[in-house]
Amino acid sequence: MTMLMTMADTYRNPVYPDVFADPFVLRHEGMYYAYGTAPGGADGREIPVLRSNDLVHWESLGHALAPTGATQFWAPEVASHAGRFYMYYSSGGGVHEGVDHRLRVAVAEHPAGPFVDYGKLLVPDQPFSIDAHPFRDLDGQWYLYYCVDFLEEEGDHRVGTGIVVDRLLDMTTLAGAARVVVRPHHDWHVFLKDRTMYGATYDWHTVEGASVLVHEGKYYCFYSGGAWERENYGVSWVVADHPLGPWRRPDGGPEAVLMRTPASGELLGPGHNSFTMGPDGQTWIVYHAWDPGQTARRMCIDRLAWEGERPVTKGPTWTEQPAPAR
Known about the structure:
There is one protein chain. The chain has no helices and 24 strands. By secondary structure, the chain is mainly β. The protein has one domain: Glycosyl hydrolase domain, family 43 (Tachylectin-2, Chain A), CATH 2.115.10.20. The strands form 6 sheets. Strands 10, 11, 12, 13, 14, 15, 16, 17 and 18 form a 9-stranded mixed beta sheet that branches. Strands 2-3-4-5 form a 4-stranded antiparallel beta sheet, with no helix packed on it.
């Protein structure tokens, strides 16, 4: 397919018509590469990869991850470091979807791949780990944010999936000293009541899909809460003065949410976002949302702005919007 080089004046969500959940966008040498959760390719590769020059027109480059033997692949994110590219993803292959996923890393010489699995579990002491987010601080230190399960209530923390962070000693090795970033703590974070997990039954809550931005010297960890297949899914954040925390919640209580399903129902369950700088120099939030019939989670984009220390966006939008301009 030939890349569409004409810059659009407007765009309308979704910006890609096919299944593309958990979208992550890497900006590299003036181009954008998107990776997401979607079915594998006929050639046995996994993890679809797209390319764009404007965040609006996308072409498929096929699938980026060489076959690994697993059957389920979730939420890839890619970091560029020292001339190589590192794809962090979770995979599993058990009978019960979502209970055996473990974090892995694959390496490539080009953002389109092929990425070859490095052959190690990133968090070997956890039975479940997903949604890795690599973050490079201004001093060059890399960190990895990811999700694990918590089976004990603590304060107002609920049982369920939460986000932790650890330093990367190198691009394939964690320090092994993970710290809690955010655990589910609101009613809207509910994933499923009376869920059977680890041999017991819980009212399960979830926060997942970390993505970190620095704004005026503070670190904002955005997360998605709730059930990914229902309308309560949405995006909120916590904030800290250092990548390792301690993290605090924003003012505004449970309504301090960046995005959630609009009243019209045109886009359902917006979330699992990443951020990228557009060709206009502005920050864009990239996320998925269901169509009204819930046939597919598709990639959407909207501008992110700030009102003081508070992030704001018009998203999720589904009408014509001004496109990123050079």
